[in-house]
Amino acid sequence: MPDRLNRQWTLARRPRGLVQAADFRLVEAPVPTPADGEVLVRNLFLSCDPTQRGWMAMDTYLPAVRLGDVMRGIAGGTVVESRHPAFRHGQLVTGMFGWQEWAIARPGTGSAPTAVPPGVPLETALSILGLTGITAYFGLLEVGRPQPGETVVVSGAAGATGSAVGQIAKLKGCRVIGVAGGAEKCRRLTQELGFDAAIDYRTEDVAARLGALCPEGVDLYFDNVGGEILDAALARLALRGRVVLCGAISRYSDDRVGPGPVNYLNLLTRRGRMEGFIVLDFLPRAAEAVGALAGWLREGKLKDRVDVQQGFEQAPAALARLFTGKNQGKQLVKIGDAP
Amino acid sequence: MPDRLNRQWTLARRPRGLVQAADFRLVEAPVPTPADGEVLVRNLFLSCDPTQRGWMAMDTYLPAVRLGDVMRGIAGGTVVESRHPAFRHGQLVTGMFGWQEWAIARPGTGSAPTAVPPGVPLETALSILGLTGITAYFGLLEVGRPQPGETVVVSGAAGATGSAVGQIAKLKGCRVIGVAGGAEKCRRLTQELGFDAAIDYRTEDVAARLGALCPEGVDLYFDNVGGEILDAALARLALRGRVVLCGAISRYSDDRVGPGPVNYLNLLTRRGRMEGFIVLDFLPRAAEAVGALAGWLREGKLKDRVDVQQGFEQAPAALARLFTGKNQGKQLVKIGDAP
Question: Do the Cβ atoms of B276 and A272 come within 8 Å?
Fold first, then answer.
């Protein structure tokens, strides 16, 4: 399709403070042509994930996106041309395709396409059955190792990962408390997602509420936010409590390195463990998580919520929503319809 | 022995800043009489341990020592009168006998006496073959789980626990770097104890030196000190690195809660684990550690060093030495000779 153009968001500068539209540049390039072993994908949805702020800023567990390169990001789309025997025209796929309308995906590389199972909407494949759900599944179960009857606290609980973590913990027989920003999010946690309690960090004293809600301490704290809420959970850590470090969204928009958790020494006196993980390490076992999540989803035991912004040009603004807490569930950007 | 008096150090006030003599009061009480099932011990050595600063100040993993009570502490002595079939007159024992000349020890309680194996000096039973060695053994091997070839960094490396940790790590095939205060301590680590390198935190930039000495990162950091050295180790954490929290002596003398480790998020990006422990949890397995440690000691593979201050009245000053780094190895106070 040499007559069509590929719109791309490239990284224009390293972010300072909150992510802004001016951190990106909208450019046009020719639609690429797949080589042998590759497929050409028309992206239909872009995924917005807090970790992208880190990719924009610096080397972390992946090298920083280079200035001028297409913004790194997960996307989902349809195969328009396949030169790989495992993929066919019209098939839905997800992968690290970047913030662009058209992408070359090559099995066995970082841009490898993952086939979306029949009957699964692309939105779902990008949220609860995608890296978000896989993150929640392995982070909670493999790193946190919750036991039935334990008290699990999740921050960023109304977000994509947090709401999945809380629901899975409930399915495993735990008592679950979510920390989220705003009454509407908190209402949804308890009334729609089955959380036992919710704390609104914008209006409530999280440490005091955790003390009241967890008289025997927090057995497992799944941290998506860092900062004061991490410290409040550490203050209430139960004997042999675990802290799973999944993210620290409260810190990502700070240009200076924020303070560390002053209560970390409770890990010593209470024989606690604080452990981080990156979902990429669990990708070889993704099918295990997706199988379990899909089963719960089919049985109605797991709810998925996506927050879809419309239009390719909205991608930077959609990403920014994560850092001001505007998103309700998984943040996606719809950038096209299946051709 | 109703005509003799029992000198005791009681807690006079909660410490502020560094431990001071005025935090304690020297009192005299009648020598107690053992009841059935108890033994009367004449303490000969008092053990000084950093964790005692916490016991003086507040409830931690044990309740705080009450004002006016005999100072809690490990001691070693000889059985003078036994009303328990497992102990006999003249036998050497260690236990949580408190800072006093005479103590009642009762098997099965917190004051339980532990028999010193034949041929083992009381000093050794209170250091490398006592809680100090057991702490090093389980903290390193069970919590830290070092693998041969890994790089292990130990802080407080010239102290009782740290020097044992470093030597055990060497025995397990690791590369070991110690952080200590002062050229003499550092010299001892490399020239007497077999450490691969030592960093003098008083004159060197620990973070820079760790970077130079650990180009592939720190696989295991055994922390006795907290503060800036913990942060420097986190900054250099290797992929899947572990931080074992054993103590934080740099913080114990602060009246305000010090800052937390700002680099804690490296636990996430590098899939690290930071875990605390309390040696008391491992006491049911103490024989396993003591057996291994005694074997290495016999074979000359492990060196023990004790720093003995003389005289019961020196106990507060001896404890204070830990917090100014004056001690060379295990700090003990000799308070009597076997009768």
Answer: yes
